[in-house]
Amino acid sequence: MSKSLICSCEDVTADDVRHAVSRGYCDVESVKRYTGFGTGICQGKSCLSAVAALLEKEKALAPDAVVPFTPRPPLYPTELRLLATAPVDESVPPVGGVPQEVEVFASALRPTEPLPAKAKVVIIGGGIMGLALAYNLARAGETDVVVLERGYLCAGASGRNGGGVRMQWGTPALVELAKRSIDLMKGFARELGINVWLRQGGYLFMARTEAVARKLERNVTLHNRFGVPTRLVTPDAARDIVPGLTMKNCVAASFNPEDGVIFPWPFLWGYAQGCRKKGVRVETYTDVKGFEVSGGQIRKVKTDRGDIACDTVVLAAGAWSPEVAKLVGVQLPNEPHRHEILSTEPLKPFLGPLVSVLDSGLYFSQSMRGEIVGGMGDPKEPAGLNMGSTLRFVSRFAQALMEQLPQVGHVKVLRQWAGCYDVTPDNNPILGRTPGLDNLLQMSGFVGHGFMMAPAVAERMAQWMATGESDELFTRFNLRRFSEGSIEREDMIIG
Q1: Average per-residue pLDDT in the chain?
Q2: What is the number of domains present in the chain?
Q3: What are phi and psi of 87, to 5 degrees?
Q4: Does the global pTM surpass 0.70?
């Protein structure tokens, strides 16, 4: 057993890489996420070639499938105060960015074994929603399920978010779902045997205007009605919760100590592992190309690895859901919007809650390893499937963060990346049966909060699918609400 060090930044050994391969994580991107190699100060410059060579030596992948992971800016660790000096032209939309994600994965990564000819349920999308639903269906006894993922696990929004989980929402339905999800997260390690590092340090929401302060005040009343202990706090009390916080230009705040942060990647892997143990097929690097439809029903899902006949199809592809829906003639109102995020070098623990300035979309927290992880929405971001990183974002974020925590100016940014919010007109999800196509079920449109809602939504959707019992969730959030005008807007969206 070799203990030779492969990645000195993250203490990843050859055995760690072999262990990842034994768990089915064989391509470079997946091994990076499973072991953490290449996420430290050198950003893979000293370890990527060694991992690629080891994967080839272990015959985990064919030589032409050993594709390097996507590099992340900045090229070298750079202080926040230096990044904050980069000019930002607010009149120009933040188009482009580097690197752009590869839309077509290497064909050599495509599995060679055939797909099953038929499955009772085909779920399109191997993110947190699709995998959580598959796992809950299997728990209910339905294991004839195939999950199709076009890339590697964690390639989409589920693997690109900041890991925040909160009960502070503006509508009763989302408050209830979030509360149930966090309850389920508490037992996740016990049930699925993987640690997701749930840390309930709270969420501190800050308001810069009286209008947003009134929103926080209204929400406190709503939260308390559902047993969520959110409270309004003064600027001085907020500074006590987060020492060093300036609260500059902020007039009020709300705090729920039971909100928190988890580590996204093992959360996804836990569901995938649970699916496979129960007999569910999770097929990565499998791209949906079309559908066979007759009699108002989808009869087959067509992929680049063959066709699967099915009884039910669930569309859970996040920001890619509208593209997939178009293949069967369904128009979804969802729009993808890039949201950028970054991570710094690790610091000693000093930050308990996730902090957000609701007006500007700024948010930041400290991970269990000590990094500051944060992002900030951009009101000029155009719609589109763009996952490139920009200097504009990191400059705007650095300025906004240092306004509230000036002592972190010396801290170095190690890497930045982007993912896509799946945005609907009312900031609420699209769930339930598709009008006119009865066996196509919708499970998308979560506007950046699907990750934290997935356990509860999947639990209820699996029960609804397995029993046929009525559930108002799939009526309230049905696609037809947009044509009928029966919408209720959610306004507690960060960014």
Answers
A1: 94
A2: 2
A3: -70, 145
A4: yes
